[in-house]
Amino acid sequence: MTLLDGKKISNDIKDEIAAIVQKMKDQGEKVPHLAAVLVGEDGASLTYVGSKVRACERIGFESTLIKLPHTTTEVELLNKIDELNQDDEIDGFIVQLPLPPQINEQKVLMAVDPSKDVDGFHPENFGKMALDMSTFIPATPFGILELLERYKVETKGKHTVVIGRSHIVGRPMSILMSRKGWPGNSTVTLTHSSTKDIANITRQADIIISALGVPEFVKADMVKEGVVIIDVGITRVPDASRERGYVLKGDVDFDNVSKKASFITPVPGGVGPMTIAMLLKNTLLARELRRKR
User: Fewest CB atoms within 10 A around its CB: which of 52, 105, 233, 255?
Assistant: First the structure.
């Protein structure tokens, strides 16, 4: 069993980007600038955005964090997005989800300039991805592809089962794993809450990508020997014995499933660190595209 070490690979990617940024600095070029908009005080979002800012500092990017109160109206947020769209100093930006209930997430994602949409959520970028055109791939699916590629996991002709159909992970992964190329060229089954007898389907899978958010949903009797497991789920499960009062669990029963797997991602330390690394990669791409204009 090989552990797909997202922490190590993400650090490799950050080092690679840092070397490119240093070269840009040496040549007197403008370095990439990533902005993040955070509405409210959601704990997980604060932690995640903080990690992004620190990652920018480490590799030499400029970064801007815009914190808005949870009472921010939809119009106020849309105005802020318009400002960022017009700001030539900003190469790419993200609006951290989830948003407070008074704000329509779809409206917000539509308002982001597609050329600055480094999250890859705008319909224009999603459509280009589906058509195999060059674009920003959503950071988590992009990170999964990078893990498969760097660990040389064979995907051609394999049966990939994706659990979960969100627009952020499940749906794009199903498209990317079936694309012509590598990683890709696999036959994909997309499963979800209405799928009947899901265990019968997962037992046929060569590769399982689970993005369900249900702790330890995938059990050892649901997988075959030699399966490749990509666990995207990360849930805080209360645990009084821990100092923090909780433990992080993935969608997969790691202790038992890992005994049958050929490759598996840990939680934490698997897909999570890759998401931030690929967001930085998308921001570098945004800078390069803006420079060519």
Answer: 255
